[in-house]
Amino acid sequence: MRVLMSLFAASIIAAAVSPAAAETVRKVLASPLVDEGSDPDGCTAAVSGLGGPAVWQVRVERLLLDGKALVETSREAKADRYPLCIADLPVAKNAEVTLSFVAHNRGIASTAGIVLRFIDPQDFYYVEADMVARRVRLFRIVNGERRELAKAAAALAADKALTLTVRAAGDSFAVSLDGKSLLETHDGAIGVPGRLGIGSRADGQTSFGDLFIDVLD
User: Fold this and answer.
1) 1 falls within a domain
2) Which terminus of the chain faces fewer neighbouring Cβ atoms within 10 Å, N or C?
3) Bridge partners of 128?
4) 3-class DSSP state of 12
5) In this structure, is residue 92 part of a structural domain?
6) Beta strand pairing status for 44-49 and 81-86?
7) CA separation for the pair 12, 86 (Å, rounded)
8) What angle do CA 30, 54, 38 make, to 5 degrees?
9) What is the pLDDT of residue 189?
């Protein structure tokens, strides 16, 4: 009996000190309740690289769950221009982020990206799915210098709903597409919490769904 009571007490203590499971936060970027052409609900426009300001608007996208999406509409055909839309909250170093999107081949680029540990437009991590090159890449941007950390071939297609997921924990990064693991790598250059968001490139027309975020800090 004493052994059973000791085990029971130990289990209660362990439950009390164990960290709570990560809670998924849905960051709504384009509410289905707002009119087409409205500004984004849950993020602020920014640009990394060349070119003018980014312009994000809510558009109809029947291939996504809510029928609405966020689209970058300025569409400047500059290969080194990365329009971003950054959520104010949460701020996290470690997180798992999932994004559904539909990319349309209507420009020199057709991409969808997830932004991690965003400090400013010159310093952040970026995971990019490239429909033209049919690959997914992880970049580190520090002082505006973009460096590729890892890449993998991927079954990417235009005009199709896809789901990109990235998990950042410490210096470890893991990326998957539609639940299939694509790449894993390590990098510790940006080791502080930052904001999260989405990104496009050049004049690509991509419909972005909401961000689903599990903060792991």
Assistant:
1) no
2) N
3) 113, 137
4) helix
5) yes
6) antiparallel
7) 41
8) 35
9) 97
Domain limits at 52? Answer: 22-215
Joined tokens for residue 136: 């997914």
CB neighbours (10 Å) of residue 145? 9
- Report the domain count for the chain: 1
Would residue 8 count as lying in a domain?
A: no
pLDDT for position 17: 37
Single out the residue of 203, 193, 199 nearest to residue 211, CA to CA. 199
Low-confidence ranges of the chain (pLDDT < 50): 1-20
- 122 to 126, 142, 165, 168, 190: CA distances (angstroms): 11, 6, 23, 19, 12
Which residues are paired to 198 by β-bridges? 85, 114
The whole-number pLDDT of residue 22 equals 66
Q: Retrieve residue 174's tokens.
A: 């893991």
User: How far apart are alpha carbons 109 and 99 in whole angstroms?
Assistant: 19
Read off the CATH number of the domain in which 73 is found.
2.60.120.560
In a domain, 117, yes or no: yes
Contact 171, 57 (CB under 8 A): no
pLDDT at 10 (0 to 100) = 40
Give the position of tokens 């982020």: 97
pLDDT score of 21:
52
d(CA 164, CA 96): 11
